[in-house]
Amino acid sequence: MTTSLILLCLFAALLEMDVTYAFQTLVSRPIIAGPLLGAATGDLMAGVQVGVFTELLFTDISPLGGIVPPSGVVAVTIPLFLHSLGVELYFGFFLGVACSVLYSFFDAFLRKTRFTWLIFLEKKIGRRPDGITPIIAASLLLSFLMAFIFISVAARLCAQLMFVVFPYLTPKMHFAFRLAYMAVPWIGLAALIPTFRLKTR
Fold first, then answer.
1. Cβ(135)–Cβ(125) below 8 Å
2. Terminus of the chain with fewer CB atoms < 10 Å: N or C?
3. pTM listed for this prediction
4. Does 79 score more than 90 pLDDT?
């Protein structure tokens, strides 16, 4: 993996922190993260396209209750990572969506693990309240590293997968994936129609 791709994964992990753990400035929304990551890879328009498509696809998914939604940052990072290696966006997009769903399970597991750790730390903080700052910093750093490891490993595995299967992809498969990719924003818009209809009543 080249230095620029490692930096892309680091930047994506930092944006992922904005979802829950820190900042929460909404830069982790796909429609914002896509152009930012696209600019980082040198293809702003690819970032805009993937960001808009992902935003429309995930717009109806809300993090309510115990639901951990798919990661919009992961969903835009993987296709842009692959696109910088020469893989078409219409292949990378669906791999990105699959990885974003996997990340939701990974993140849910980390949250459960962190909960048991926090019970232990709560007693420690009760005895020494001034020691909370290093604990928060360590927790944020650990979350950042876990996101970076997942994104970089997933991106690398997807790249290897594409290089293995690419010679076997027929023109009909290219056409089918391209058609499915172009249908994504219409699926997202169709999901929004009931929402707008409810608000107008």
1. yes
2. C
3. 0.85
4. yes
